[in-house]
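Good morning,

Attaching, inline, the backbone tokens for the sequence recovery test we're adding to the shared suite. The designed sequence is right after.
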């Protein structure tokens, strides 16, 4: 079974070390991040700690710092770096010819709540 991909935006639409928010009708938003190497990541726009908007955080390397309490979240996995614990949902991303795509099945699925220890 092949994935269905939805075009979201161009890589150039996201500032380097920035994010773009993809709103969903009945689910929390998804944040798409661009790091300094133009790698693209997508996470649920909610920190596993207190639900802070990760899209408003500072991107550095392959991490984003939550704007509320400065937790560092790995962009690749969605998980907090030790000593903090917990993960936020990550989304599959595909980039072709400068266009960013997200998996429609993941976008339409219910949010999977990752339990913080």
């Amino acid at each position: 079974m092949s994935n269905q991909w939805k075009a979201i935006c161009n890589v150039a639409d996201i500032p380097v070390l920035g994010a773009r928010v993809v709103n969903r009708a009945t689910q929390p938003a998804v944040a798409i991040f661009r790091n300094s190497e133009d790698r693209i990541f997508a996470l649920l726009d909610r920190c596993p700690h207190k639900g802070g908007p990760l899209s408003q955080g500072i991107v550095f390397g392959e991490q984003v710092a939550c704007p509320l309490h400065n937790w560092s979240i790995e962009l690749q996995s969605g998980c907090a770096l030790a000593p903090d614990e917990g993960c936020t949902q990550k989304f599959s991303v595909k980039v072709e010819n400068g266009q960013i795509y997200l998996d429609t099945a993941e976008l339409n699925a219910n949010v999977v709540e990752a339990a913080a220890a």
